[in-house]
Specification:
Blueprint (H helix, E strand, L loop, with lengths): L4 E11 L2 E14 L2 E4 L2 E2 L10 H6 L6 E5 L14 E3 L25 H7 L7 H16 L9
Parallel strand pairs: 1-5
Antiparallel strand pairs: 1-2, 2-3, 3-4, 5-6
Helix pairs in contact: 2-3
Length: 149
């Protein structure tokens, strides 16, 4: 059975009157192939391949998230600026160096190592940074991985 997580989320954007809800309760799915929102697969560049196991391993068992965009254009036009925030979790500080990734399931990276892997980088990597830092914060709060058949 493939390991994945599905969240029911709200899409919001910055508009002239502040944050505005674009749609209510669409599905966000994260699996071995990457990320999909409302059935639309987001592009997964090559540098994500070595990090996908962490997406599965450290997913919190949350019911809702908030997806926030940096500008007021349409959903499709700003998926590369996606930020995913899980409720009730604290942010971990980003370290100065990026450690090597590992595929050893018995020795997963520490929370500090995870936080240091995903410092700010323009473009799609912003999605990966926010996902991993927020997921690491949820792991501190007792989040766990679950399977969707």
């Amino acid at each position: 059975m493939e390991k994945s997580s599905t969240f029911r989320i709200q899409l919001v954007q910055h508009g002239p009157s502040g944050l505005q809800v674009l749609r209510k309760k669409v599905l966000l799915r994260i699996d071995a192939d990457g990320v999909a929102i409302a059935g639309q697969r987001l592009p997964a560049p090559d540098h994500l391949v070595q990090k996908r196991r962490l997406l599965r391993l450290y997913l919190p068992n949350a019911h809702e998230t908030t997806v926030r965009f940096a500008d007021s254009v349409g959903v499709d036009a700003c998926t590369d600026q996606l930020r995913i925030r899980f409720p009730d979790c604290r942010l971990l500080p980003a370290a100065a160096a990026m450690p090597a990734t590992t595929d050893n399931e018995a020795d997963p990276p520490s929370l500090d190592e995870m936080a240091s892997m995903f410092m700010y980088d323009p473009g799609f990597r912003r999605l990966v940074q926010d996902l991993h830092v927020q997921i690491a914060a949820n792991e501190v709060a007792g989040g766990s991985m679950h399977a969707i058949s």
